Task: structure prediction
Amino acid sequence: MIDLDLTAEQRQFQEMLREFGARELAPEVARRDRDSDPDPELFAKLAQLGLPGVCVPQRYGGAGLDWLALGIACEELEYVDASCRTALSVHAGLCLTGIYQWGTEDQRQRLLRPLAEGTRQGCFALTEPDAGSDVRALRTRAHKEGDLYRLRGQKVWISMGDRADLLLVFATVDPELGTRGITAFAVDRDLAGPGLRSEPIKHKYGLRASDTAVVYLDDAMVPAANRIGEEGEGFKVAMSCLDSGRYCVASGAAGTIRACLDMSVAYAHQRQVQGQEIGRFQLVQQMIAGMARDYDIARLLWMRAGWAKNQGRRSSRESALAKWVNSERANRCADDALQVQGATGFSEESPAARYLRNSRATLIYEGTREVQTQLAAEYALGYREDRPVRCPLPAWPDEGPASP
Ligand SMILES: Cc1cc2nc3c(=O)[nH]c(=O)nc-3n(C[C@H](O)[C@H](O)[C@H](O)COP(=O)(O)OP(=O)(O)OC[C@H]3O[C@@H](n4cnc5c(N)ncnc54)[C@H](O)[C@@H]3O)c2cc1C
Result:
């Protein structure tokens, strides 16, 4: 049975996040965006709230909550700051769940635990200059030498790539093998040597307060013990990470839609034209009605995906669909929110302009709008179906902390 009411604990969690957003994010969000200035303390602040390992079992250092909690966090953080939500979803959605689902028990204790506790930050490095939507075209090479691998190649557009302590990097052991050569590695910045360098990408259209980087791998070293999954399993690892990442993007987008709605309602009450508030004009009402409709749709879609995940089910279809619909709707609502405000919205520093620029990224990353459209068609046509998920995260409440 699906229960759409939040429990008392979930409401408390949501309240705590709203209070955090208003206190820690809202005062600086416009300036950080204007100055392209990511908050260096952001991850530590998220860690204080237990968010990095929010849905990881307590025995691996997490908070032991469930997927809905992660969705609530993404929605509430993006309501205020999409760059902050990106940091959480890359860490908790893309990086950490991959290591949980595909890692060995040793890797979960050694690599996952510090990520879940929030003492180390993770990122996910798949995209290359010539391999974005087409993961098959990936060229970063992994050469095994004794008990370590050397990685050579370049990753681009990597969120948190300039600050993450642990990079989940995808490389091929043999390009001739296509996807069956792709292998996942947990690259520890402290162990990789001088062959790992990164530099931030400047002058982005949106998500300016998010660290997005180029990562250079020039014989970066990775202990063989940090290979996640078997050689050749990396494509499957990447796709399962993307299931969780898309879920985070979808729930975050609901936050943007709600922010657009709240802002537009307030402005429509306050702005007077022809002696009445603009909320009385039907064409303004149409835009606001669209936002109210889209918020409900977005919320239902991400909650359905979260519910499926809590059941331990594969949510590839639900997450991709929610990501596709919600990111498109968020971008459309941001455009309408700007329109409701007229010239006021057109200022580069208006929240509506920021929502518009930031939401544009969600139509590109973690599978473009076109890739999501293609996936939806393939599911409908029966060309694609979901197999059982590997090692699902247990639904909340989990079994509690590990015995010492
Ligand atoms: C802000 C930001 C943050 C990012 N963070 C990360 C990250 O943390 N980690 C990471 O690995 N990557 C990250 N990316 C990269 C992102 O995932 C890629 O940009 C994305 O997968 C698209 O790849 P591409 O840019 O190479 O576009 P391409 O794949 O070259 O696509 C170009 C165009 O062709 C279309 N297209 C491609 N294939 C098809 C097809 N089969 N059918 C129809 N149309 C198609 C696309 O939809 C697009 O419109 C980030 C990108 C951005 C903008």
Q: What stands out?
A: The longest strand covers residues 148-159. Strands lie at 122-125, 141-145, 148-159, 166-172, 182-188, 196-200, 212-223, 227-228, 272-273, 276-277.
